[in-house]
UniProtKB/TrEMBL annotation:
It comes from the Bacteria. PANTHER family: TEICHURONIC ACID BIOSYNTHESIS PROTEIN TUAE (PTHR37422:SF23). GO terms for molecular function: ligase activity. The chain crosses the membrane at residues 58-76, 143-166, 186-205, 221-238, 244-264, 276-296, 383-404, 416-434. It is found in: Membrane. Residues 227-396 form the O-antigen ligase-related domain. This is O-antigen ligase family protein. It is a multi-pass membrane protein.
Length: 465
């Protein structure tokens, strides 16, 4: 279980963020291989005997099992067939399908993304039920080291002005970083990685308060240095969202230390930081915020000017001058949902759905769309259109119930909270970007959120996490 998760994360990150040809299939296969835990860890099967004793335990599991079954069967009820012409043009031919049942717009693409999403749900469930408490920190350590190495490689190639991804692969656009083809995908990955380094740094700092040998070696400084390195990568990407969410991360961290400082007088509370950290961390956060803006000023200046121009146009009510393609895509997703509100159109179907729903101003006179959008620049709207209301409810029900059940444990666990906070930031980013379209980010998100809830579960039982 431990080794399988490491292989999954490493492959997802270094296969161009899961965008290499065939990488999605391999990530899905690696995720589904987590089922080997049933064979390798038979003694853990006793856990399932307790699940059915409480609705808080079996309802989340049942919700995801239904969704997995749905995602696997939907491609067999395809609505359209993709036809590629001799000139390379793509058209869709309607098929006979069973209405009222879960269906997929196009069989091949929906099967690929359905296997990926269902595989990651299986991975998360197996991690939750089979991962030993003693394996939590070693697993997190390997994942965090991988993130630090990716950040160092990205900084090297960025300073070397490399024109190819990792010096090998041709980029889709010029806005790539490390092994990721799009800078905002790196933003999401870096935010998750910041939580990993913060979690491990907090653990070793607290261990050092109890153990003199640990305090002398100061392993916490290694992870706080990794935290700094990952923070420096976000301004280098010249992404507005990267700088914005870096600011939010450090401000959130500063607020946590300020709140924790009020509890520092209670020596029995092991998650509360020392008093001097409550002064140093907020000051350091302010420095990081200023440095992020200053360091990204050259690359961000054109985008900031564009943002300021757009704000002025809104203030002057000149809406006709605004650049609407992104927000129009969100409206297109809403129209997609209205035509299939219950079951949606199947995962990964936006690539072909957009060709059916694109507005006239984005088409040539022949009716062909000018630019095919694989993603909607809004993961929340895209998931709603592709999975429908029922599918999205089934997807969100287990994490929502875990949060309600272990929210107190999250506040008691410094490590769990450090892992969970970036997950919340990614959801905010997904409201106007598409981080979950990157398989590596999606994979790491499922794994990290599961680890955060594991720490919260341990802390909720009164254990030191």
């Amino acid at each position: 279980m431990y080794l399988q998760t490491i292989i999954l994360v490493l492959f997802a990150v270094w296969s161009l963020g899961g965008r290499m040809e065939g990488a999605i299939t391999w990530i899905a296969a690696l995720s589904w291989s987590s089922l080997l835990a049933f064979v390798l860890c038979p003694r853990r099967l006793a856990v399932f005997q307790k699940i059915w004793g409480s609705w808080q335990s079996y309802l989340p599991l049942l919700a995801w099992l239904i969704l997995i079954f749905w995602l696997l069967l939907a491609p067999f009820n395809a609505q359209w067939r993709v036809i590629t012409g001799l000139d390379g043009s793509v058209s869709l031919e309607p098929l006979v399908y069973f209405s009222g049942l879960p269906a997929a717009l196009v069989e091949a693409r929906c099967r690929e993304y359905g296997l990926l999403l269902s595989g990651l749900m299986v991975q998360a469930m197996v991690l939750w039920h089979f991962l030993e408490r003693s394996d939590l920190r070693p697993l997190l350590t390997v994942i965090a080291w991988n993130s630090i190495i990716a950040a160092a490689v990205g900084v090297f190639f960025k300073l070397a002005a490399a024109e190819k991804i990792l010096g090998l692969a041709e980029p889709v656009t010029g806005s790539f970083f490390a092994s990721f083809r799009y800078h905002n995908h790196w933003t999401a990955f870096a935010l998750l990685s910041l939580g990993q380094c913060l979690s491990l740094g907090a653990y070793w700092y607290r261990r050092g308060q109890r153990n003199v040998d640990v305090r002398r070696k100061r392993p916490d400084l290694i992870w706080f240095s990794g935290l700094l390195l990952l923070s420096l990568t976000l301004p280098l990407t010249a992404a507005r969202a990267g700088v914005l969410f870096l600011v939010l991360f450090w401000l959130g961290l500063a607020c946590w230390f300020l709140v924790g400082g009020r509890r520092a007088s209670n020596t029995a509370d092991l998650t509360a930081p020392r008093r001097y950290w409550t002064i140093l961390i907020p000051c350091f956060a302010i420095v990081m915020v200023i440095f992020s803006i200053w360091g990204a000023r050259q690359g961000l200046l054109p985008e900031w000017r564009q943002t300021r121009t757009q704000l002025e146009q809104v203030q002057n009510q000149k809406y006709e001058d605004l650049d609407h393609p992104r927000t129009d895509s969100w409206g297109d997703c809403w129209r997609m949902l209205q035509d299939s509100p219950v079951w949606g159109w199947g995962p990964g179907s936006h690539l072909y759905l957009y060709q059916l729903y694109a507005r006239e101003e984005y088409r040539y006179e022949s009716g062909v769309v000018k630019h095919i959008k694989e993603f909607a620049h809004n993961d929340l709207m895209q998931f709603l259109a592709e999975l429908g209301a029922v599918g999205l409810l089934l997807l969100l029900l287990p994490p929502a119930m875990l949060f309600l059940r272990y929210s107190h444990g999250l506040w008691r666990s410094a490590q769990g909270l450090a892992l969970f906070f970036p997950c919340v930031l990614i959801l905010m980013l997904a409201s106007f970007e598409f981080p979950f379209s990157n398989p590596a980010v999606l994979t790491l998100y499922f794994v990290q959120a599961t680890l955060a809830f594991k720490y919260a579960c341990n802390a909720g039982r009164g254990r030191w996490a």
